[in-house]
Amino acid sequence: MAKLRVVGIGPGDYEEMTVKAVNALNACDVIVGYTVYVDLVKAHFPGKEFFTTPMRREADRCRLALDMAREGKDVAMICSGDAGIYGMAGLIYELRGEDASVEVEVIGGLTAATSGGCRLGAPLTHDFAVISLSDLLTPWETIEKRLDCAAAGNFSIALYNPRSHKRTDYLQKACDIVLRHQSPETVCGVVRNIGREGEETRVMTLAALRDYEADMFTTVFIGNSFTRVVDGRMVTPRGYRDV
After folding, report:
1. 166 in the Ramachandran plot: left (φ > 0), alpha (ψ -120 to 50) or beta?
2. Of 73, 100, 143, 200, which one has the greatest count of Cβ atoms within 10 A?
3. Is 3.40.1010.10 the CATH number for 2-107?
């Protein structure tokens, strides 16, 4: 039976890929992915065939991977972070449908919430929400409602896709929504280029985050009302000390 592995490669650093992901890429014939992600792994897996598509060609990329699997090739579709968190795993299953001729295996990886969180300290020790600010596939009204509910519920929040060339003020809008429920002094943090050249981290208040100029390579962390700065690190207690 043809097999297609959907592989989460983590944030970009080879050392942060899981052993299972590395083994899957070593075993496959073909690696398919978004151009930026293929460039991250190409040097570590010589001798493979590589196929790429640009951003917003996700469906074409997944169809290509499925077609090559049906031809009998051992194919790996790579995704940044985790394959099932804003990755291609869901779309692969949707496009394959009930076609039993292709077996799909999803191989997890470190998503930006976890790989970025450890750079800042421990911002997600308690319950948290992960929300993308990209409105390409989700209406802004829905994003706003999710932000409002997460802030009202006193969740820590990890924000993906906080800014693009067209969405220059979305992080500011998101902060304004959170400020309906949280103090301007709420501890927040940002990480740019997680696991890649030029990695940067910064801890700041929610008020300062509102004016921060993030980019598409930034992951944003908004603490809850218990989040504190400990030795320069962003820490959200769970309450273990009080047990």
Report:
1. alpha
2. 143
3. yes
